[in-house]
Amino acid sequence: MRIERPERPEQPEQPERLGNGSDDATGDRSARRAVTVFPVLVLLAGAVGLLLPGSFTGWSESVPYLLGVVMFCMGITMTPEDFRGVAKRPWAVVLGLVAHYVIMPGLGWAVAHLLDLPPQLAAGVILVGCAPSGTASNVVTYLARGDVALSVSVATVSTLVAPLVTPPLTLLLAGEYLPVDAGSMVTDILKTVLLPVVAGLAVRLVAGRYVERALPALPWLSALTISVIVAVVVAGSADAIKSAAGLVFVAVVLHNGLGLALGYGAGRLGRLGEPASRAMAFEVGMQNSGLAAALATAHFSPLAALPAAIFSVWHNISGAVTAAWLSRRGR
Q: Where are the stretches annotated Disordered (predicted)?
């Protein structure tokens, strides 16, 4: 879930404003609406999957294709400016990338051990930690008056390197719980993440004039698609949710909360400044839980995808609340 940002001279210590050529107030309302409605949709989808699991019988095979739609939407919102932003501040982007792929996988492993999670759930929590940045992280950074340019750059790079980083990290940290076929996982991430993102970017470059008209609808298409993924995942493990949901919720809250705090701390430790540190918090603490759910369903089990489904709801709620607090503190 991304919001277009207007072209303007970069001011590293000032948070960029977003919007499709509209004023700041309109952009604020649009972004707040997206971040507010998204977790509600996911909650409703989870409830439908839990109450009517039979309605989604046989849908698990469609999860990778649904994720491909989300990643295509992400790719189609990208512009060459996103990649130029990486070249402008390589140190900040590298720090964000390293923090993301060190803090969240490590926290996933630590939380799984701390709570003594069963193997399926432990592998699911670790897999969430090994996923790239969340699709709504730049929107939440915007609401927090953070450095949106840095947020977009880190999210873009973390997604592009996911095929090379996520499988070996999952093998290293989750291999003690369940067998991990890292080679097959690389192939799946290439097909469901990298190829759709590149295809979306190509469409944007070739047919940018026509794509501009569809951009406002893309966040909602992504939100609806992720909601369907959550419904399918929850339906697949509906029988086990009543006994495991409470424990998984505690794991998700710890994982996400510590990720937000340590991400912010990494930015301050790297002397990136307050706006950039806020961006780091959300780039580290918010994960692409749709990818984690798809990989868990394909490589482990529907139960292993439960942490990703709950993370999909919680990290958007916690992100929006944290953003509101940071924005108010900034004023």
A: 1-29
- Give every CB contact of residue 7 below 8 A, 6+ residues apart in sequence: 81
Distance of CA 244 to the CA centre of its chain: 23
Q: What is the pLDDT of residue 8?
A: 38
* SS3 assignment, position 7: coil
* Residues paired with 287 in a beta bridge: 133
Cα 133 to Cα 290: distance, rounded to the nearest angstrom: 11
User: Can you read off the two tokens belonging to residue 86?
Assistant: 């990486």
Structure tokens at 197: 């993102």
Task: Give Cα 218 to chain centroid, integer Å.
Answer: 16
CA distances to 97, 126, 151, 301, 314 from 179, in Å: 27, 13, 34, 12, 28
DSSP-assigned letters across all residues of 314-326: HHHHHHHHHHHHH
* Positions in the chain short of pLDDT 50: 4-24, 26-27
* Backbone region of residue 174 per phi and psi (left: phi > 0; alpha: psi in -120 to 50; beta: other values): alpha
Nearest to 62 by CA among 192, 200, 160, 179: 192
